[in-house]
């Protein structure tokens, strides 16, 4: 019976350590983000909720809303990020699809680049030139923009690996 109680204590300590590690990781990662400054004016129907960067990566989260005067279906959100010195570091296009009138649709952009200070967000029309530019820019800046889900899975797997070792 004593062995079962000891085993139960070890399990509780491991779970408590795991929760503590996850909380410290979350707080530690999010404490390093600083707000970025925007360049230009906001297009109609676009709201940026979070635009933050660290010294090595960043994130931009926002919402786009299509209304009767400004139908955004099929258009692109163009996100440009600039260094602190004002040089263009990267550009990304996000296609606006499956929008309903007066219903916000969320978008997210994450990137890995050093010393980002500014960002600019525009809405551009879909055209042949835009599609050519999207393909060109996707290949040009493919190493800068990342998928947030992949990064989160990497962090969780790293923490689990460290716990099990």
Q: For the largest beta sheet, what order do the strands appear in spatially?
A: 1-3-4-7-9
Taking the sheet with the most strands, its summary is: 5 strands, antiparallel
**What gyration radius follows from the Cα positions, in whole Å?**
21 Å
Please bin the fraction of helical residues. Answer: 25-40%
- Fraction in beta strands: 25-35%
Low-confidence stretches: none
Helix-and-strand structural type: alpha+beta
SSE pattern, N- to C-terminal: HEEEEEEEEHEH
- The CATH C-level name of the largest domain is Mainly Beta
How would the global form be characterised? elongated
How many structural domains are formed by the residues? 2
CATH architecture identity of the largest domain: Sandwich
Can you describe what's shown?
This protein is α+β, with helices and mostly antiparallel strands. It has two domains: 2-31; 35-144, Immunoglobulin-like (Sandwich), CATH 2.60.40. Helices cover 36% and strands 33% of the residues. It has three helices and nine strands. It has helices at 2-31, 128-140, 148-164; strands spanning 34-35, 37-38, 46-53, 57-64, 76-83, 88-95, 105-112, 116-124, 145-146.
């Amino acid at each position: 019976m004593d062995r079962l109680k000891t085993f139960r204590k070890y399990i509780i300590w491991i779970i408590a350590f795991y929760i503590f590690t996850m909380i410290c990781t979350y707080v530690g990662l999010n404490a390093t983000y600083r707000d970025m400054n925007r360049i230009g004016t906001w297009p109609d129907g676009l709201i940026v909720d979070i635009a933050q960067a660290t010294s090595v990566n960043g994130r931009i989260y926002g919402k786009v809303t299509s209304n009767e005067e400004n139908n955004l279906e099929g258009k692109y959100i163009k996100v440009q990020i600039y260094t602190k010195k004002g040089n263009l570091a990267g550009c990304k296009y996000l296609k606006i699809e499956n929008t309903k009138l007066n219903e916000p649709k969320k978008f997210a952009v994450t990137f890995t680049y050093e010393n980002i200070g500014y960002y600019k967000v525009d809405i551009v029309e879909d055209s042949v030139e835009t599609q050519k530019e999207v393909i060109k820019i996707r290949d040009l800046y493919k190493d800068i923009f990342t998928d947030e889900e992949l990064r989160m899975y990497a962090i969780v797997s790293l923490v689990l690996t460290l716990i099990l070792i």
